Amino acid sequence: MKKLLSILLLLLLITPVFADQNKETLIILDQSASMLDRYNESSKIDYAKRAVKTILTSIPQDERVGLRTVGVHPVVMSQMIFKNPNALCEATALLNRIESNNHQNIISSLTNIMPSGASPLQYTLQLAIRNDFNLSTPKKHIILVTDGYENCDGDPCMYIRREMMRRSDLKIDIVAIGVSNEEKNLLSCLSTATNGKFLDVNTSADIAPISNKLSYNQPNYNSASMNNPNANYNTNSFNNNANTKNYVQYNNPTVQTNTPRQQQRVLYNSYLLEFYE
Questions:
Q1: Who's near 166: CB < 8 A, 6+ residues apart?
Q2: Over the stretch 177-232, which tens digit does the pLDDT of each residue have?
Q3: Burial (CB count <10 Å: 0-12, 13-18, 19+), residue 63
């Protein structure tokens, strides 16, 4: 009997975790300047990078996952601002497109991330939702790792609320790195509106349990389908301006714009930085 139990236990341990072919995950990592701040025993960006690595351990290797940042590398930021003074609130980068067998590529990208600039959350979410996912994928999952709310002119909560009035294929989980109570209320509307999870990270001990608490590891994945009367929608005024048409991306073969402005290209290491003026 003991031998039989040992065999059964061994089979359980080696049973592979199969990818969900109906789901794509995009990790959005905040690399704005505030992520350099010290928080408890480490910097916020250190907490964030460790959180991303923990998240990846719970995603099967053959499941599609990618990495986008809020903000860009300081060198790229200086080049952007030289070309376009408004670039501070248009800075976001798709470092790794959503693909299978992408874990090591994402971990490698984390090495070169250096915080700088502002936090254009709405702008980043718009690009992510419109451009990064396969349109036919029924489960679109965003994991936002951040230390605070929007500090440009956008209103990410209002934007997501409006998006969810016409779709039910999106979940947003928030991994909050040492956020204030006020910003927690603002950020939580993104997870509440999409039936996602809000997870606090205040110490190193909070990082390890993240992977088991994210919404895609829960039995019911169905997203919210709109105005949730219990959500805390404490937001700033919504600004839908022309700047949302323009964007910065790395490693994206397709550049889309509805404006006639001239396309500018800056080569930074192996990345092609594209924007418009």
A1: none
A2: 999 888 899 999 999 999 999 999 988 899 999 988 888 766 555 555 444 434 33
A3: buried
Q: Give the Cα separation of 115 and 188 in Å (integer).
A: 23
Q: pTM for the whole thing?
A: 0.74
- Please work out, in degrees rounded to the nearest 5, the angle formed at the alpha carbon of residue 210 by the alpha carbons of 209 and 213: 95
Angle at 236 between CA 231 and CA 238, to 5 degrees: 95
Token pair 């350099």: residue: 36
pLDDT tens, residue by residue, 91-104: 888 999 999 999 99
Name the percent of the chain in helix, strand, coil, to the closest 5: 40, 20, 40
Judged by DSSP in three states, 79 sits in helix
Most confident of 11-15, 147-151, 256-260: 147-151
Produce one character per residue of 235-244: b if its CB has 16 or more CB atoms within 10 Å, e if not: beeeeeeebb
Residues of the chain above pLDDT 70, percent: 66
Q: Which structure tokens are listed for 195? A: 């039936």
Q: Which alpha helices (H) appear in the chain, and where do they start and end?
A: 2-14, 44-57, 74-83, 103-111, 121-127, 156-164, 181-193, 210-213
In angstroms, the CA 143 to CA 199 distance is 10
